[in-house]
UniProtKB/TrEMBL annotation:
The keyword Disulfide bond does not apply. This is ATPase family associated with various cellular activities (AAA). Belongs to the AAA ATPase family. Residues 134-260 form the AAA+ ATPase domain.
Length: 352
């Protein structure tokens, strides 16, 4: 059985345990899940001479399961839901390493996000003592390719020991299961990428609209639960008015817009790290790339390296100029659009 992104351990698939608990002899039958025999979940049967002792033993086992869970403090993603209902499993994900210096956003934006997601957790005891709630929700919105996912990866990087559940694509339908897991393994973070898909496909994943399922999941947690919901979206209007009509579920919305001139220059310098490119050439390229995104800068530097490899030399300013000309050409218009360039700013996304 996997116990982490790169670790495993042997476990008992079928076993009989005989011991005493609180002075009473007990027998515990442990059986792993066997889907082909109709048993989709692990099973634990307890037999004891004292029924009350058996109940207390089960309670202690449940407590230890939460405390010692191999999922605690890990980054995990849920597998796509099977037709029979429950998730088919979880996958451990390596916790990323993304420094604050690797996240290029307008001044103050990253600090606001970090203070809300991480700062509240760091002051959990003081907030609880003051009767304040810990549960929080944050929405990062704006054009694609501007750094929302990179910001989320930075948050995950900085929260070592926090359980993180990633939900993307069809797995968003598992929001209720993710919330229950986060409740049991807090402090926890539930990440929902491209949450606008909930609104787009709200009638395609069962009888309950997914957007309402998300809101119900947020409602279902007690205020003192140390769980952060981090959501990203491009077109914020697709969330309709549901979030505003049920206030308190998302308590901070942060626009992540197209980089300005200074931010774009920083992005070009960041993604050119390790390449022998001149500062003046990078600055000139950034000035020409008006309205371009972090994704554009990343792809540009890859093309610089590829061009140098193809001609059998080291990357240089000439490679940067040619690669930029190619990406800015009319034949690459769709490519630029797919990289998020030329899209609307968050101020242009209607909210009503």
């Amino acid at each position: 059985m996997a116990t982490g992104p790169s670790t495993q351990r042997q476990v008992v698939a079928l076993g009989l345990h005989l011991f005493t608990f609180e002075g009473s002899p007990v027998v515990v039958l442990q059986a792993a899940a066997r889907s082909r025999y109709g048993q989709d979940e692990p099973r634990l049967d307890v037999v004891a001479t004292d029924p009350a002792a058996a109940g207390r033993l089960l309670g202690e086992i449940r407590r230890l399961m939460r405390e010692k869970s191999v999922l605690r403090g890990q980054v995990i993603s849920f597998a796509e839901q099977s037709h029979s209902g429950p998730p088919s499993g979880t996958t451990f994900v390596q916790r990323p390493t993304v420094l604050a210096s690797d996240v290029v956003l307008p001044d103050g934006v990253l600090d606001r996000v970090v203070d809300h997601v991480i700062g509240i957790g760091e002051h959990r005891e003081a907030l609880r003592a003051a009767g304040r709630h810990l549960k929080r929700g944050i929405l990062l919105y704006g054009p694609p390719g501007t750094g929302k996912t990179h910001t989320v990866r930075h948050l995950i990087s900085r929260t070592e020991g926090t359980t993180v559940v990633l939900l993307t694509g069809p797995a968003i339908s598992l929001i209720s299961e993710a919330t229950e897991l986060a409740r049991a393994l807090q402090p926890a973070m539930v990440v929902l990428e491209d949450v606008d898909l909930i609104a787009q496909d709200r009638y395609e994943h069962g009888p309950q609209p997914l957007l309402f399922a998300l809101l119900d999941a947020l409602d279902g947690l007690d205020g003192d639960a140390d769980v952060a919901f981090v959501m990203t979206t491009n077109p914020v209007e697709l969330l309709e008015r549901a979030l505003a009509e049920r206030p308190g579920r998302v308590d901070l919305a942060v626009p992540v817009d197209l980089p300005d001139d200074e931010a774009r220059a920083r992005l070009f310098t960041l993604y050119a790290e390790g390449l022998p490119l001149g500062a003046e050439a990078l600055h000139a390229a950034a000035e020409r790339a008006q309205g371009m995104t972090a994704s554009f800068a990343k792809e540009l530097m890859r093309r610089v390296v590829l061009r140098a490899v193809e001609r059998g030399g080291e990357p240089g300013d000439g490679d940067l100029e040619v690669a930029l000309e190619q990406l800015l050409s009319s034949s690459e218009e769709l490519t630029r659009a797919l990289l998020g360039a030329g899209t609307r700013t968050s101020e242009e996304y209607p909210t009503d």
